[in-house]
Design goal:
heterodimer; A: 303 residues; mainly alpha; 10 helices; 71% helix; globular; B: Rossmann fold; Rossmann fold; seven-stranded mixed sheet; 16 strands
Amino acid sequence: MIGTLAQHVLNAVQLGSVYALIALGYTMVYGVLTMINFAHGDIFMVGAYLSLAGALFLLGLPSQLPPLLVFLGALTFSMTLTALLGVLIERLAYRPLRGAPRVSAVITALGVGLFLENFTLAMLGPEPRQFPALIPPTVLQLGGLAVTPLNLLIILVAVAIMVFLDLLVRRTLLGMAMRAISYNRALVPLMGVPVDRVISLTFALGSAIAAAGGLTYGLAYPVLDPYMGIRIGWWAFIAAVVGGIGNIRGAMLGGYILGLVEIFTPVVLPSSTYRDFVAFSLLLVLLIFRPTGLLGRPLFERV
Amino acid sequence: MKCVRMGAGVMALLWCLAALGGCPRPEATEVRLGVNAELTGSKPAVGASCRNAAELLAAQVNQAGGIRLGDKAYQLTLFIEDNEDKAESAAAAAQKLITQNGVVAVIGPNASGNAIPAARICEDAKTPMVSPWSTNPKTTEGKQYVFRACFIDDFQGQVMAKFARENLKAETAAVLYDVASEYNKGIAEFFKKFFEAAGGRVVAFESYTKGDMDFSSQLTKIKGANPQVLFLPNYYNEVPLQVQQARRLGLTCPIIGSDSWGSEELLKLGGPDLEGTFFSTHYAPDIATEKARKFIRDYQERYGKTPDDVAALTYDAGSLILAALAQAGAPDRQKLRDALAAIREFEGVTGKMSFKDTGDPVKSAVILQIKNGRFTYHASVAP
């Protein structure tokens, strides 16, 4: 019984790690632009496919590389290219609309998401792709708890990235600039902060982290299809809002809460059909009592 | 965009004018058949096999000079619609094939979740429909114009329950199925019913919803119930994830499945985790009859791969329609329906079928095992 419960918690932490990584991208973009980047779920999907491409390339090399090296190689490859994609999207689709009403940017983001989905569909075809097992699938039995190296790797990578990002935002000049922009975008350029460059870097960071999410997700659920970003994107978005959108630690917290919801709904209720119902109800109730999320600052309009 | 829309408007206007003018139809020299297939969506391998087999059949018929009905030869023309593996698109595709393309009959859809709504449209429009692969009883239930080329889930559930009880000697079983799909839900319930009737106990009956990727909570619950066999009556795109996650959670019992596993894609996605699993299906290339061998050869020559069960059943569905057309003597929907309903015996590439006024054939099932990364014949079960 304890074993089963521990197993559920382990499953939830693994899934929550992936949600947290993707939620970070939503929250960072919202922080600097007060805009919801609805294409983020699809950027995650592209990141997963790029990880697949990187992994297949490294596995296809004549000399056999150790699995951890293949993992890190695919991670670097995918994070770099996805970061470029994020910057490109911001430059081409969002920057021209910076002065436009906020709804235009949101609609553009939805359009970019549809573009990414259908472009991938057209390039690769509708067949789902299999993600190779980079990590040997050994199962360690600890009492009733089954642990695989993959569980630990996913959680470790996610935590490492989150610690890195947290330090970056709190301790570096770039992080200070990001926080300053999120505090007051009109005033910050007067202080000599290159706003456009900071926004580009924010997109690059958010997209790179989504790519890391894509790789870990691909390892855990090794069937990729062009529409995989839609549901994950929504769940990560809820995670970001639950945690308090714009707040980095909030996104991490929200990711783990959503992981728990996803895993424990079918445990408590008769079917996983209630998952979305529970997740969205949680969002609704939370927004009634804490409109800015769990860790969000109270919002006030400056006059 | 504007141009396109205007173009469509002009076309619509011309259509109306043509209809009002009642211009005489040119003498028909073709028989139009519709194909309503899952070309995109979550199981594109099903749609691709269906389309390939239908195109192969049409090419063979037309190469041999077309269909002779009475003293006239007709060319067979296919109209292929993508139903995106969605119930509403399947109904819309059926509607389009019937009203716009004027097909005499429709082949497909294949998945029961799509076939059931499309069957309602065909029934209302009095257009014969033959589903190659939909095994849920509801597809043909209470309908005059809907037929199929495969066995139904009552039988399949019974076959797998018996296999689990007698061959695997399982006392207890667990089921994980998609509660949002008619096919999965139907067969899961039949399996439970027959497994319990055979003296077994279903210790876990867990469900998920189409689109889920994480099954770990259900599988953890199943592991806690410690079943001797796990039944996964789900589609080929989800089964690999379920099997992998089950194995990673340390679930070691035998795993069995149903005809929805039959695509080669399953092997590509699942890899070594699937070794040793069993599933029931419609035909096995290993034990093909002379007729089936010819079909397999032709299909391999044209597409470079072995036809799966959907391809074989689509070929049979098309052949059934052609046989009925020859009886009907004219490309007429009502006559075709009557001829289809009058068929009693039919030998297709998936074996002998006999019909009893329900639109459902009675035919045997085969059980395949995944061995060395291939589907291998294991046993046949007659009804």
